[in-house]
Every structure is written in structure tokens, then in C-alpha cells.
Amino acid sequence: MAKATITFEDINVTVTVPAGTRVIEVSEKVGSGITYGCREGDCGTCIMKVSSGWNHLTEPSVLEDKVLRENMAGKHNRLACQAQVLGGQISVKPV
Ligand code: FES
Q1: Non-local CB neighbours of 18 within 8 Å, separated by 6+ positions
Q2: Which of 22, 33, 77, 79 has the fewest Cβ atoms within 10 Å of its own Cβ atom?
Q3: In this structure, are strands 3-8 and 88-94 parallel, antiparallel, or unpaired?
Q4: Residue 42: is it exposed, middle or buried by C-beta count within 10 angstroms (0-12/13-18/19+)?
Q5: pLDDT at 1
Q6: What's the rounded Cα separation, in Å, for the pair 9 and 25?
Q7: Which atom of ligand 1 is found nearest the CA of 81?
Q8: Rounded CA Rg of the chain
Q9: What is the Å distance from ligand 1's center to 1 Cα?
Q10: Please, what's the b/e burial string for 55-87 (b: 16 or more CB within 10 A of its CB; e: otherwise)?
């Protein structure tokens, strides 16, 4: 199975995970400050900044795009409960 690496910049922790893992699944385990509410892509609580590796994430769904817009999220923001890492290396931090 393909692997991916996620670095949580706020706590300086890097974790290797199976491809397809949602960022939120790891962030809560390692204690990153990326918080969450619904875990369904609806509340916008889990907005994170993707500092690098943007292209290693799944494309945002229509719902994620809508929630990001409603929360006036920046260009490099994603929902941690929706973004799945496909491989390679990404770096994220709480917004
Ligand atoms: S936890 Fe609600 S949108 Fe991610």
C-alpha cells in the first residue's frame, strides 16, 4: 500500500500514514491544534493551512469548496476532515 507523510508544523511532528488517510484522523492522535466538530465537511471547524504538498491531497468536493468559501478561507486552506493524503509529503498547521 502506498504511504504518505504528514508534518504537523504546530507541534513539529511528522507521521507516515497509508495513502487515503484523512488528515483529521492523524491530527487528533498526535495532538495537533487542528480542531474539529462535525467531521463531515459541514461546520468549517477543521480548516487547516496546507504549507506544502497541496498536490498530494484529494481535490475538494463541492461541499468542501462551499464551506471554505463561507468561512472566507485562504487559497491554501483545506478541511482536515475531508482532505485525504494520496502520497508524498505534506505539511499542515491550524489556521
Ligand atoms: S470537522 Fe466540521 S468541517 Fe471538518
Answers
A1: 1, 2, 3, 4
A2: 33
A3: parallel
A4: middle
A5: 74
A6: 16
A7: 4
A8: 12
A9: 27
A10: ebbeebeeebeebbeeeebeeebbbbbbbbbbe
C-alpha cell, 19: 495513502
* Contact (Cβ atoms closer than 8 angstroms) between residue 70 and residue 88: no
> pLDDT averaged over consecutive 10-residue blocks of the chain (95 residues)?
95 97 96 96 96 96 95 92 97 96
Provide residues with CB under 6 Å of ligand 1: 36-39, 41-46, 67, 79, 81
Gap from CA of 82 to ligand 1 centroid (Å): 8
Three cell numbers, residue 54: 497541496
Cell of 22: 484523512
- Taking CA atoms, 55 is separated from 30, 50, 64, 87, 95, in Å, by 23, 10, 16, 9, 19
Question: Which amino acid is present at 1?
Answer: M
